[in-house]
Design brief:
Elements (H helix, E strand, L loop, with lengths): L3 H9 L14 E3 L13 E6 L2 E5 L9 H16 L15 E7 L21 H7 L5 E6 L1 H4 L9 H16 L3 E6 L4 E2 L2 E2 L7 H14 L6 E4 L11 H16 L7 E4 L14 H4 L12 E6 L18 H13 L4 E5 L6 H16 L4 E10 L19 H7 L4
Parallel strand pairs: 4-5, 4-13, 5-6, 6-9, 9-10, 10-11, 11-12, 12-13
Antiparallel strand pairs: 1-3, 2-3, 7-8
Helix pairs in contact: 6-7, 10-11
Bound molecules: 2-acetamido-2-deoxy-beta-D-glucopyranose (3 copies).
The site of one 2-acetamido-2-deoxy-beta-D-glucopyranose has 5 residues, from α1.
């Protein structure tokens, strides 16, 4: 639960910047909306009291080629699925293809403890990858770096470092995923199940969302790899509180990534946490901006800790895609990867091609990992010192950008 004080403070922070006309899929009205109420493309359509959106159709011929392609492929998707829900239920984002920029998560253990100071991802990587077509960077961070005291305020020194990196990503025109890399934990205790309270967790997201409330290229990755949760329902409550906090902070237009259980397992989502997570609502209207967040590695125990890959595991993704289509939802593969071996070049290429071919149900991928990882790290896609890319990037990732 959010405290009354916390909610009141957040609402007063919900100031929107006035814009010219809203673009297709942009907000164009709703309670407390002070931006444009006209659309440069599409028609301003009331979804609920809080959210009006510029949607395709009704006299506008101004839709871009990209939008038309997306809309028509969604129409195909809808017509072949059991539902006739219109394409506007989807997020409206382009296909995301990208990479993790690790460093601020270094020494976050899987028990949610942290013992380091973080390492800034190299600035040059953002332009390096963007020049090849990357349009999404996931930037993990330790909760303890962002708010050194649980439930406390953002550390300004860390914020300066983190935001500088985020801005380097945004400057390329890419989307940037803010990834809280804490496994649903703080110091070996689970959120809302003996550890941090849901209010402490929501407070972190309220503060971060306030900073980026007006930036449509920010994506909120509200938790990396929850695992070994005693129960799913408390986690779903915490997810709902984080979503509410982000919207109450004024960040009403952005995508929020919703992780399930079992290390954000792509295989587990449809049967484990997925059914309960379908009940999470979005104060900004609809659920098109709540995108599921899944991970999938291709080594023998699916852990991403071995050099050899044993499968592309397309069957797991086909099951996931079927489930998403039945529920008119999207997911992103925000971690996958492989070792520097021919088996991984082949399997990762095949997996990423499947993700690519299943857009928009699969919104896209961000590969693990570049950033401050050494080129010798077994899953590294960090560019070499001479500016060249490794074979995993060249053979498996680049063909799917
Ligand atoms: C938002 O709208 C509500 C209901 O109309 C109003 O009470 C509140 O003062 C508004 N908040 C802001 C920040 O404008
Ligand atoms: C978390 O795990 C790390 C690594 O195993 C360990 O050093 C640390 O003591 C653990 N933290 C807690 C609070 O148990
Ligand atoms: C595919 O992944 C699942 C877990 O996500 C695993 O249980 C299964 O063994 C994998 N299939 C192959 C062929 O490795």
């Amino acid at each position: 639960m959010l405290s009354v004080t916390f909610l009141a403070v957040s609402l007063f922070g919900a100031v929107q910047l006035a814009a010219a006309q809203s673009s297709l899929y942009g907000q164009c009205g709703g309670i407390n909306w002070t931006g444009s109420t006209t659309c440069s493309s599409g028609t301003c359509t009331k979804l609920n009291d809080w959210y009006y959106q510029c949607l395709p159709g009704s006299g506008s011929a101004a839709a871009t080629t990209t939008t038309s392609t997306r809309a028509s492929s969604s129409t195909t998707r809808s017509s072949t699925s059991a539902s006739s829900t219109p394409s506007s239920v989807l997020s409206g984002l382009p296909r995301l293809k990208g990479v993790n920029e690790a460093g601020y998560d270094f020494t976050v253990y899987t028990n949610g403890s942290f013992s380091g100071t973080g390492v800034d991802p190299p600035a040059g990587q953002f332009t390096h990858f963007a020049s090849q077509g990357v349009n999404a960077f996931r930037v993990p961070f330790a909760w303890q770096l962002m708010t050194p005291t649980l439930g406390g305020t953002i550390d300004s020194a860390f914020w300066t470092r983190y935001d500088k990196t985020v801005q380097q990503g945004l400057a390329t025109g890419a989307y940037v995923i803010l990834d809280l890399h804490n496994y649903a934990r703080w110091n070996n205790a689970i959120i809302n199940q003996g550890g941090p309270t849901t209010a402490q967790y929501a407070s972190l997201w309220s503060q971060v969302a306030t900073k980026y409330a007006s930036n449509p290229k920010i994506i909120f990755g509200i938790m990396n790899e929850p695992h070994d949760l005693p129960a799913i329902a408390p986690w779903v409550q915490s997810v709902q509180a984080a979503v509410n906090a982000i919207r109450a902070a004024g960040a009403t237009s952005q995508i929020i990534l919703i992780p399930g259980s079992s290390w954000s397992s792509a295989q587990a989502l449809p049967t484990e946490a997925g059914p309960q997570l379908l009940t999470v609502t979005d104060p900004a209207g609809g659920v098109s901006k709540l995108v599921f967040d899944v991970h999938k590695y291709l080594d023998s125990d699916n852990s991403g800790t071995h050099d050899e890959c044993v499968t592309d595991n397309i069957s797991v993704f086909q099951t996931l895609v079927n489930w998403l289509k039945q529920n008119n939802r999207q997911a992103i593969l925000s971690e996958t990867g492989g070792g520097h071996t021919q088996s991984c070049y082949t399997a990762l290429n095949s997996q990423l091609a499947f993700i690519k071919n299943n857009y928009p149900t699969m919104l896209g991928f961000t590969v693990w990992s570049a950033g401050s990882f050494n080129t010798a790290y077994e899953l590294s896609v960090t560019p070499n010192a001479d500016g060249t890319d490794n074979q995993l990037w060249i053979q498996a990732v680049k063909p799917n950008l």
